[in-house]
Design goal:
mainly alpha; about 45% helix
C-alpha cells in the first residue's frame, strides 16, 4: 500500500482464494471481525501469559475456533467445546 506517489511501500496485502469458492457474506465477515480481537488476545496470553492459566487460554481459543468454523459454515472439530455445545460467547465476554 502506497499512500502518495514516491513514498515507500507501507504494507503488502496477500489474498488466498480458492477457485470456485463462494464469497463470504457481509454478516459472516462482521461476526469474524468481532471475534478477532479475542483471538489475538488469547493467542498472546497462551504464548506469553501465566503458565498456570494456559489451559484456560487454550480452552478459550478452542471455543473461538469453533465459533469461527461455525461462521464459515464448516463443522467444528470433534472434541472441541463448540462441537459439544459449549462454545458460547459468555466464556469470551
Amino acid at each position: 500500500m502506497v499512500e502518495e506517489p514516491g513514498q515507500v511501500v507501507r504494507a503488502h496485502m496477500n489474498f488466498l482464494r480458492i477457485q470456485g469458492a463462494r464469497r463470504p457474506a457481509a454478516e459472516a465477515l462482521r461476526q469474524v471481525d468481532l471475534l478477532l480481537p479475542q483471538v489475538v488476545m488469547f493467542s498472546s496470553l497462551l504464548t506469553l501469559g501465566s503458565k498456570k492459566r494456559r489451559t484456560e487460554y487454550a480452552s478459550a481459543l478452542d471455543a473461538l475456533t469453533g465459533q469461527l468454523e461455525s461462521i464459515a459454515g464448516g463443522a467444528p472439530s470433534p472434541g472441541s467445546p463448540a462441537s459439544e455445545g459449549e462454545g458460547g460467547s459468555s466464556l469470551l465476554a
